[in-house]
Specification:
heterodimer, A: alpha+beta, six-stranded antiparallel β-barrel, 5 helices, 12 strands, B: mainly alpha, about 0% strand, globular
Chain lengths: ~290, ~160
């Protein structure tokens, strides 16, 4: 027993510097600058996790292909009906802009992407999209599904990008009602459990009285998100700051867990801007009455 | 040899369930189970190194608290290996406690070192969610230990 104890003590002495080194390395990793952490995480993803992420993407794409044909047909019919209704609107809009001497609105560019969630414990609210800087995706581009706003691109790499959805604590979007009468900032309101997370519209005017069901869109203020993307609808008053402002709960139009495909809004076409086409003449419409 | 095989299998299974299938919390945390199982058969250095490696894999998609899992798993690996000096034997009740405490400790360390602005509330995370997640992982650990490592520990 005495011999074993001596051996253990000798082993502990040998282990000590290595253990201290490993713990120190862990602490250094925890406190590295964000850019260094991102590079390291990118290397780990590429070296060890890329085959598993590839399988995840294949499963997502296969599920999408197997989706009920009737559902897809109905969605396409709805889209076609919407386009047919708005065909004359586009012409009217062009004529009115001509009368008011406003230039044409810049066309946005979109990239279709597959949404992949890693499912590891550190990846809550984070998802990967299978398109990166080679397709023109940049940090802070909006990620949108057919339902509305899903999230925002944060980090871009060749071939893929990481984004977070609206349930992330850092998510903020400037919002307005469809009629443009009320504006505010929409952010996440954490519930007691993650399943109870929802959005809240903060900073609406104190005298506002938004009934349940009023739709909220991105207002485009600040330039982070393009104007007019659906965020969700109002679902009751959250809190009132006496004499100053009101907050409303918002039911999101997109639930992050359900999103498998999305488009990334790349914003205005820079080639057209470089060609001197125009800049968006939306300022008069942005003004609150 | 059986422990090595089981550990490798659990790591692979964790990656398949969490990353390839994207199951998230519906699947148990098999990294913790693998680390705790392996650490009882490894020296402290190797267990800490294995923990660090698994923590790096777990943190690869973390955008707000990169490194928290690395630290937690490194400490857990060390603690698991050191537990051999303190507790001898592999009774079911000991293993259940070992897995439960280990899984909970990992979540507690991650919570403690995550920036306060982005971490969940203390009572919600540490008293409710973490206990359930630790129970889930501990049940899997016990089951796997009984199924694959019955009849004495192999090297």
């Amino acid at each position: 027993m005495a011999g074993q104890s001596t051996r253990n003590r000798a082993g502990s002495k040998r282990d000590f510097p290595v253990i201290i080194g490993l713990v120190l390395t862990s602490l250094i990793l925890l406190n590295l600058p964000e850019s260094a952490q991102r590079s390291l995480a990118h290397s780990v993803r590429q070296m060890a996790l890329s085959p598993f992420i590839e399988v995840n993407g294949m499963i997502t794409r296969a599920e999408a292909r197997a989706r009920d044909f009737d559902v897809l047909r109905a969605q396409m019919d709805s889209s076609m009906a919407l386009i047919a209704r708005q065909r004359t609107l586009a012409e009217e809009n062009r004529q009115l802009r001509g009368v008011l001497s406003l230039r044409q609105r810049m066309p946005s560019r979109f990239v279709a992407v597959t949404v992949v969630r890693a499912g590891t414990s550190g990846s809550e609210s984070v998802f990967q999209i299978d398109a990166g800087e080679d397709l023109g995706i940049q940090p802070f581009n909006a990620v949108v599904t057919e339902g509305g706003l899903l999230g925002q691109v944060q980090v871009v790499f060749p071939g893929y990008a990481l984004a977070y959805d609206w349930s992330h604590r850092d998510f903020r979007v400037s919002a307005m009602t469809v009629d443009g009468q009320e504006h505010g900032i929409v952010e996440v309101a954490r519930g007691a459990f993650r399943a109870q997370d929802r959005l809240v519209l903060r900073g609406a005017s104190f005298l506002s009285d938004l009934p349940d069901g009023v739709e909220l869109l991105t207002s485009g203020r600040g330039g982070a998100f393009p104007r007019g993307i659906r965020i969700g609808h109002v679902s009751g008053v959250a809190e009132t700051s006496a004499g100053w402002s009101k907050s409303y709960y918002v039911v999101p139009s997109v639930y992050p867990g359900e999103a498998t495909h999305a488009v990334v809004d790349l914003g205005m076409d820079r080639n057209l801007i470089a060609a001197g086409a125009d800049t968006p003449a939306a300022a008069p419409l942005d003004r609150r009455p | 040899m059986r422990v090595v095989g089981l550990t490798a299998g659990l790591i692979l299974m964790h990656l398949v369930l969490h990353v390839a299938l994207g199951l998230g919390r519906e699947a148990p945390d098999l990294f913790v189970v693998a680390l705790l199982l392996a650490s009882r058969s490894m020296n402290v250095r190797s267990a800490a190194a294995l923990g660090m490696l698994l923590g790096l894999l777990e943190d690869a998609y973390s955008m707000t608290s990169f490194g928290s899992n690395v630290l937690a798993m490194t400490v857990l690996g060390m603690a698991g290996a050191k537990s051999r000096d303190l507790f001898v034997g592999d009774s079911k009740s000991f293993l259940a406690t070992f897995f439960l405490l280990g899984a909970w400790l990992r979540i507690a360390i991650v919570w403690a070192v995550t920036e306060s602005a982005v971490r969940p509330d203390l009572d919600q995370r540490l008293l409710v969610e973490s206990v359930l997640m630790a129970l889930y992982a501990a049940s899997c650990g016990i089951l796997l230990r009984l199924l694959f490592l019955r009849g004495g520990r192999a090297s």
